[in-house]
Specification:
Low-confidence stretches: none
Number of domains: 2
Largest sheet: 5 strands, mixed
Structural class: alpha/beta
CATH architecture of the largest domain: 3-Layer(aba) Sandwich
Mean pLDDT: 96
Bound molecules: oxa(dethia)-CoA
Distance between the termini: 15 Å
Number of helices: 10
Order of helices and strands: EEHHEHEHEHEHEEEEHEHHHEE
CATH topology of the largest domain: Peroxisomal Thiolase, Chain A, domain 1
Strand content: 15-25%
Helix content: 25-40%
Shape: globular
Strand order of the largest sheet: 1-7-6-4-5
Amino acid sequence: MNAHIIGTGSFLPEKVVTNFDLAEHVETNDEWIMSRTGIRQRHIAVNETTAGMAFEAARRALDDAGMLPEELEMILLATVSPDHIVPSAACEVQAMLGANNAVAIELNAACSGFVFALNTAHAYVMAGIYTKILVIGVETLSKLVDWSDRGTCILFGDGAGAAVLTADECAGIQDFVQYADGTKGEALLCDAKPLQNLFVQNGQQQRYVRMDGQEVFKFAVRRVSESIDQLLARNSLTTGEIGCYILHQANARIIQSVIKHLKEEEGKFPMNVERCGNTSGASVPLLLDELNRSGRLKKGEKVIMSGFGGGLTWGSIYMIW
Ligand code: UT7
């Protein structure tokens, strides 16, 4: 049995922040941001919370799937920006939904989070443990970003996306690859609370996202291309057979480099980075929901999904829609 997506949902905060708005706060401009990243605007949370956005996306995905919250057996929520350390946002969403029969687990794999969570759901389905699983990717990165650092603050946005999965004999996830390289973690990091107790008194510590942009860029192009090549080869697929590639929306130039590497048609790589910015773990499910609702994904179509980011982590999925 395969884990198969039968419903999707998403949510974006109301406030839209354009490149022109940002240029009023840091030394930047629309031309630089557009040409280097393909981002024109992003949604930023003002009244929204991580759990609240995840709940909205989940509610819409359940509606789309025609499933009641109490039917769920598992909730897997991927985030690096929860509202609390305890309880997890996964448990908060379980309570908000009234999904009383579902275990709720949170997973941190940064921008690869949703893809890794889908793989985890697939493993549970294959093992015959659960058959009704809700997977969510949600981020409020705006609270982890240094708004005075023009190198990072222009990149990120907030939002949530979700998918409901059930067991299917034919459609759904066919294969996946997923990787981590902790030795390269410093390329993209954000500190948690520093050690501070009766015996250790620390001063203030940097807690914002810091990134070696060029290092992450090179890593992303190389590893995403590699992981897709690997999936195609071991499933005896040619690029011509793939109908759609849903890649993490970090930067339009990263996606264009992958297209060039695969010698693929640009139209098979839908993007929403221009409107949403880089929403980390939420970007793949946000785009997935747009594509599902617009009818872009056709039943039986072969789809590749890829995530990559902090950790460093990366991975790709081959699925039949
Ligand atoms: O989800 C995964 C996480 N992250 C990513 O995928 C990010 C991957 N990396 C990137 O997308 C790119 O590296 C960035 C968009 C972050 C940066 O683009 P870049 O072409 O690598 O620029 P750079 O960092 O080499 O900076 C070039 C210049 C520098 O000025 P000097 O030293 O040449 O005078 C920067 O200070 O651009 C300057 N700069 C800016 N100028 C205007 C940096 N940020 C800005 C800005 N506006 N916002």
